[in-house]
């Protein structure tokens, strides 16, 4: 094959569909490589595929990320060796060439050239890419093979297991900090979404709930909001634009001067409404709402008064700043995010507390609420896995928060680590075949 340049976007599709001859996958260090799982395509900052699993000829199993380049030298020219987003890369895949790949830790990573590995000509590859991708997983089209009732039952069981794991996590945290702080940290993490969950939780540790509630107790409602905004944004290092200087004055008076810094926050491809600064303003309004009764007491009261089958519980966590408000401070915490907080934090936390304190009726109410709660907004994970299992009818079967959480549990516990043989769906579809 003569000198041919292949765009990175074409390499992505070749790798994603594994249009390669397995026996020809040999790295620049001479190791024969077998792809167990090519990874999940990453549309965010960082490597092209994440969570890949490969084995090399010595028998070692490698788990991590894959970076694709047209030329091997692109790793160095793109500066990936200095970027922490690439610390988990286990393999560089290129069209052709060899080049040194070194992570920030100093660890060397092999390079795999696909030039002589594809199973057909590039023209045939391009024609193949015009065809729909047919999944090869053993659970493909499970709904047609099992029926709605059975797959719904399996998803309910997985959703219950995920809920119990969340409750267990909160139980472990309560052993190290007050229950109110555990709840507060969980809510803050949920406001950070996946990208900023950790820095939001770090902020909650640096600004404990007891400190915030102590400072705000007895203050008028509007003053509480200003104090909370100043402290949260100031400690986060995000108090960057304060038109009248009022928040900065409060921070200078009440803050300790130590901030997290802008570099802690991930804002790449984050929609404006999900920007950390905006969510922290929402957190200020939410915390101010519960100051009189206390966040912990207010949440328990909200759960106690909620009725299964209704959505009123999430309304306690929605924030649409009242008039007059600054530009952009409407719908600071919308229904979708409030529902996520209820499903992932409020209900499992309350179950933990109820069981630890022998509040049987409250624990039963929590389970009833969870099992009847509407599902949250669609995730990329649930959309992709739902389509694989149920095709275009996924929304008909995945019709509750519990079943949606069940999909997430299956993906994280079995799909990502490629534990198909242990997956309850696959075992039900192929009894005796994969369990051996």
Topology:
Elements: H1 8-17, E1 33-37, E2 40-41, E3 49-56, E4 61-71, H2 74-77, E5 89-96, E6 111-113, H3 122-128, H4 142-146, H5 148-174, H6 179-191, H7 193-206, H8 209-216, H9 221-236, H10 246-254, H11 276-290, H12 295-305, H13 312-315, H14 335-356, H15 360-372, H16 380-390, H17 394-397, H18 401-415, H19 424-429
Parallel strand pairs: 4-5, 5-6
Antiparallel strand pairs: 1-3, 2-3, 3-4
Unreliable stretches covering 5 or more consecutive residues:
none
Q: Quote the beta fraction.
A: 5-15%
Percent of residues in helices: 40-55%
Multimeric state? single chain
Which secondary-structure class do the elements indicate?
Answer: alpha/beta
Tally of domains: 2
Largest sheet: 6 strands, mixed
Structure summary, number of beta strands: 6
The number of helical elements comes to 19
Order of helices and strands: HEEEEHEEHHHHHHHHHHHHHHHHH
Mean pLDDT: 88
**Nearest-angstrom radius of gyration?**
25 Å
Alpha-carbon distance between the termini? Answer: 44 Å
């Amino acid at each position: 094959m003569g000198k041919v340049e292949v765009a990175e976007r074409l390499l992505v599709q070749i790798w994603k569909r594994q249009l390669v001859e397995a026996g020809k996958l040999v790295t620049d260090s001479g190791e024969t490589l077998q792809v167990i799982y090519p990874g999940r395509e990453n549309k965010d900052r960082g490597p092209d595929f994440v969570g890949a699993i490969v084995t090399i000829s010595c028998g070692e199993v490698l788990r991590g990320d894959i970076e694709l380049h047209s030329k091997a030298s692109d790793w160095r020219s793109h500066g990936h060796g200095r970027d922490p987003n690439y610390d988990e890369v286990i393999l560089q895949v290129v069209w052709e060439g060899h080049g040194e790949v070194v992570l920030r830790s100093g660890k060397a990573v092999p390079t795999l050239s696909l030039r002589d590995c594809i199973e057909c000509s590039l023209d045939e590859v391009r024609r193949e890419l015009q065809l729909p991708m047919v999944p090869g997983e053993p659970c493909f089209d499970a709904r047609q093979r099992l029926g709605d009732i059975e797959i719904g039952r399996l998803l309910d069981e997985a959703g219950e297991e995920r809920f119990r794991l969340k409750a267990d996590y909160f139980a472990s945290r309560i052993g190290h900090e007050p229950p109110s702080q555990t709840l507060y940290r969980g809510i803050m993490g949920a406001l950070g979404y996946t990208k900023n969950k950790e820095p939001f939780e770090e902020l909650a540790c640096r600004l404990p709930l007891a400190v915030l509630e102590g400072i705000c107790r007895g203050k008028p409602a509007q003053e509480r909001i200003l104090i909370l905004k100043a402290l949260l944004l100031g400690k986060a290092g995000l108090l960057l634009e304060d038109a009248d200087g009022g928040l900065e004055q409060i921070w200078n008076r009440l803050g300790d001067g130590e901030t997290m810094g802008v570099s802690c926050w991930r804002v790449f491809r984050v929609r404006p409404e999900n920007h950390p600064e905006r969510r922290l303003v929402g957190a200020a309004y939410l915390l101010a709402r519960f100051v009189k009764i206390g966040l912990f007491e207010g949440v328990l009261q909200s759960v106690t008064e909620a009725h299964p089958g209704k959505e009123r519980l999430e309304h306690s966590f929605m924030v649409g700043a009242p008039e007059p408000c600054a530009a952009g401070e409407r719908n600071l915490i919308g229904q979708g995010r409030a529902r996520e907080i209820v499903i992932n934090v409020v209900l499992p936390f309350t179950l933990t507390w109820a069981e630890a304190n022998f509040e049987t009726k409250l624990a039963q109410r929590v389970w009833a609420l969870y099992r009847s709660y509407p599902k949250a907004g669609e995730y990329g994970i649930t959309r992709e896995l739902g389509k694989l299992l149920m095709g275009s009818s996924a929304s008909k079967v995945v019709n509750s928060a519990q079943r949606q959480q069940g999909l997430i549990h299956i993906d994280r516990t079995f799909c990502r680590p490629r534990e198909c043989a242990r997956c309850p769906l696959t075992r039900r579809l192929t009894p005796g075949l994969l369990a051996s």
